[in-house]
What does this fold into?
Amino acid sequence: MPKTAIVTGAGSGVGRAAAIRLVKEGWSVALVGRRAELLEATAALTNDAKRTLVVPCDVADPAAVVKMTAAVLSTYGEVDALVHAAGTNIPDRSWPSLAVEDYQQVVDINLNGAFYCVRALLPAMRHKGAGTIVLIVSDAGITANAKAGPAYVASKFAERGLAQSINAEERGNGIRCTALCPGDINTPILDKRPVPPGAEAREKMLQPEDVAECVMLAINLPGRAVVEELVIRPR
It folds into this structure.
């Protein structure tokens, strides 16, 4: 029986790259994101759409996450891995211009979305007695920087803490979590910067496939081992 995974943010960037890589390695993958057409495009890019399940879902909506998880478990029966790559930022992100509603939006998706997905899936992983969770955090969750903005930084510091809490409480249930903390990645979120970087700068950044390699490292390790935190930056 093939292993199964849920990948959030699967419509683009790291989520799309991770989903494609998982399918390539024989996994069945539930593609989760807000826009069905982007998820369908990811399914097509895997060249094995029969191994994918498109499940549109806003991870910032806890009821929608519960419904999504139930649909995936109904289809696959169990889930071996969760890759939470859903994330966002806003253009007006610095302290002088950051609006309360924009701050809340970033935290709702980056932090609360991770919590909702993990919380919904943990009972099934506990029942199975095994599971790997990979949270795509950021190196801005280790050291704050001005370009990320306070909302993103705060959400990523907290998401990193969420990963630590999973390992602290759930390792006895066979569940492990990796906080993957990349530097700059060439993904569509760059377009939300106040001044989006040009093509030359993007070529020097990490590419989504680089981060997907790290995701697979965390997932493919023997169950007795866990990469609790992994930092990857452009060389």
User: Anything to note?
Assistant: Residues 100-128 form the longest helix (29 residues). The helical segments are 13-24, 36-45, 62-76, 100-128, 150-170, 199-203, 208-220. The longest strand covers residues 175-182.
